[in-house]
Write a structure and sequence with these properties.
The longest helix is centred in the middle third of the chain and has 18 residues. The chain is about 30% helix and about 20% strand. About 5% of the residues have low confidence. The chain has about 650 residues and is an alpha/beta fold. It has 24 helices and 26 strands. The chain is elongated, with a radius of gyration of 29 Å. α3 packs antiparallel against α19. A hairpin with a 5-residue loop joins β15 and β16.
């Protein structure tokens, strides 16, 4: 029940339901049923039935959770030697919060049925069996009697069956689970493959320290030469682009906008030196351990093709010269670049920006999509970096931690998780808060000293509390209802200036019940940031966001789709611009775009109306010292993608 295991479950359920599926079976440890039930308020798809099966730790029989003609799947529980808690009880155990009630973790064994042997007509003819119905009966496994009285069994004319392969999904979060795993008969090689005649693929959700433990590596080796091991863990697998198209787009943006606004995410340009992890894996079970990767496959049929298939794994490199040539040959873009360099807007700047340091504040957009993640955009999340003072998250959609790792590299991402001051959640829609559990668990595993302040709708408190009860631990947070930050005179108003040096104020917006917008005012450098969350045009947001240094506003749909925007309680681009103009924002950044606009939204406004406007994309960096040049990124992106047309899909 750890967030790294169930974090994608609810988003996947929504996607499956929206694809038209009528039912989905989910299997997991104790507590899963309650977790799903507690989440139904924002995973509401009444046309799809969710059938949840829980595997108990005290079950003494084989838990067959799926039985089909060609495969059976068994669930095998293992437990930790530590007490159930999110916090490690012993210092020598690597911190990892994969512990639920009773420290229960479920492994799965998928057994492919034996592949029937082939009928040999030559053997049948040699035995004097006439062609015709008798051939058919023998092929079906029936015994036949010949005219001369001889009985022929199928075994005489059919080759022996080929033992079916086995695929094991083994989750061993830390070394405290190893004793249970190696002693579990349902996971032993003697039980699963006593004669070493079956091909076995074992997928390990295990860290390097688990794989290197002598007990674990001996258990791996016991499966013999027919076993292939695939290691999956964030410390093992490379963090590089999954989608080639997005990698190309990021490199084009980097060439166009520079490191200032479009720094290349970690791993987007492969390093030349050797990878020490590969050597480490090779030493565990020589020649048999493969590092997991995107679209890596293990073929279980046909017999001749059984084994690893890496043909679909994305290329480890970007064809840099080709992308450079595309950018340099784009005449419109090159013209816009020259115009941008020559242009001096001569505008006046707020006093707070005139001498602001580059270490004062910075925004990193980790997700800029509406509703669902896509190839170019993840769902909503914005990192507000105050550098030595800490950082904050404004919304935290599914996959936010992964986006932090991609944007910053794993080391800096973990540092930012520990230094989080607060996380603000705008409303209880899945695309805005499903990443929060992972952030909370990461902070606990990293032993962050102070509890995290979580601000959001009151319903969020109940969901987080229920999850804490399910896993039997403390999520180490301080929860503040956004409603308590609506009036500046309320007692909590002084909490944030005194503790974090910022003033927060919320207002209700027009989207769903308990949906809020927020204003963050810096008591040190005196800038003001307004973020709309999801909303229709909202006058209350104008009031609290008046004279903002930066206004970040949702702009889900293009102009001309006002009716759909109203039906779904979102804004078109012009509606968002109207609101930011009313609040006299110095800079406007549009975000939360429908996935029908994969790389850049369709903007029909032009001229002076866009003089202060930028559009967000995943991994956009906006340092407050660079706000002066920010609007110049929009015409550059429009020149980079001049023929971008909406992709029509069902839904937003």
């Amino acid at each position: 029940m750890d967030p790294s295991s169930i974090g994608g479950l609810l988003g996947m359920a929504l996607t499956v339901a929206d694809s038209g599926r009528k039912a989905l079976n989910i299997v997991g440890p104790e507590g899963l049923c309650r977790f799903v039930n507690e989440s139904r308020a924002f995973v509401y798809r009444p046309k799809m039935v969710l059938d949840v099966t829980e595997v108990r730790a005290d079950s003494n029989q084989v838990n067959v959770v799926c039985e089909k003609n060609y495969v059976s799947i068994e669930a095998v529980p293992i437990t930790s030697t530590l007490n159930a808690s999110w916090e490690p009880a012993q210092s020598h155990v690597e911190p990892n919060p994969k512990r639920s009630r009773g420290a229960l973790v479920i492994c799965y064994v998928c057994k492919i049925k034996d592949i029937p042997g082939k009928f040999d007509p030559q053997k049948a003819t040699a035995l004097g069996i006439p062609r015709g119905p008798l051939f058919g009966k023998l092929t079906k496994g029936e015994k036949v009697t010949l005219p001369d009285g001889r009985s022929i069994t199928p075994e005489q004319v059919i080759s022996p069956p080929t033992p079916g392969p086995i695929v094991m999904i083994v989750c061993c979060p830390d070394v405290s689970y190893i004793a249970s795993l190696v002693s579990e008969s349902g996971l032993s090689s003697n039980y699963l493959n006593p004669n070493k005649e079956r091909n076995v693929c074992i997928i390990h959700f295990s860290t390097l320290s688990v794989l290197s433990d002598q007990r674990y590596s001996s258990w791996m080796a016991s499966f013999g030469g027919n076993a292939t091991h695939i290691a999956l863990d964030e410390t093992i697998c490379p963090m590089r682009p999954v989608f080639r198209g997005h990698a190309d787009a990021m490199y084009k943006a980097n060439l166009t906008l520079g490191e200032t606004y479009a720094p290349l995410p970690s791993g987007y340009i492969p390093e030349e030196e050797g990878d020490p992890v590969l050597g480490f894996l090779e030493a565990i079970v020589p020649g048999k351990v493969v590092r997991g990767d995107t679209l890596l496959r293990y073929r279980i049929a046909p017999i001749a093709a059984i084994g690893i298939d890496a043909s679909q794994v994305p290329s480890k490199s970007i064809v840099l010269d080709s992308i450079k040539a595309q950018v340099h040959s784009n005449d419109r873009l090159q013209s816009e670049l020259r115009r941008t360099v020559a242009t001096d807007q001569g505008e006046s700047f707020p006093d707070c920006l005139k001498e602001i340091s580059e270490k004062a504040a910075e925004l990193r957009f980790l997700g800029t999509a509406a509703a669902i993640p896509g190839k170019h955009r993840n769902v909503s999340a914005i990192l507000l970096n105050l550098f030595h003072r800490g950082c904050a998250l404004l919304d935290c959609g599914e996959g936010t931690y992964g986006q932090m790792v991609r944007a910053l590299g794993r080391t800096e991402a973990l540092e930012k998780v520990v230094s989080l001051l607060f996380v603000w959640i705008s409303h209880m829609h899945a695309d805005h808060h499903l990443g929060l559990l992972h952030i909370l668990s990461k902070r606990i595993s990293l032993k962050a000293e102070r509890p995290l302040v979580v601000i959001g709708p009151s319903k969020l408190r109940g969901w987080l509390s229920s999850y804490s009860e399910i896993i039997g631990g403390d999520n180490r947070m301080i929860f503040i209802d956004s409603a308590e930050l609506i009036e500046p005179q309320q007692p909590l108003a002084s909490y944030f200036p005194e503790n974090f040096g910022v003033q927060l104020r919320c207002c209700e917006v027009i989207h769903c019940p308990q949906a809020y917008g927020i204003v963050v005012e810096d008591c040190v450098n005196h800038w003001k940031l307004c973020y709309s969350g999801d909303t229709r045009p909202c006058e209350e947001l104008v009031k609290i966001g008046k004279n903002s240094t930066i206004a970040i506003h949702e702009a889900t749909l293009e102009d001309g789709m006002e009716q759909e925007a109203e039906e779904k309680a979102h804004c078109t681009i012009s509606e968002a611009l109207d609101i930011c103009e009313k609040m006299n924002a110095h800079r406007t950044i549009l975000t939360h775009f429908s996935q029908r606009y994969p790389r850049i939204p369709v903007i029909k406004s032009s001229g002076d109306r866009l003089a202060r406007v930028a559009v967000a994309f995943d991994f956009l960096r906006v340092n407050f010292k660079d706000l002066g040049q920010l609007p110049r990124t929009l015409p550059l992106l429009q020149a980079l993608y001049p023929n971008e047309a909406p992709v029509v899909r069902a839904g937003v």
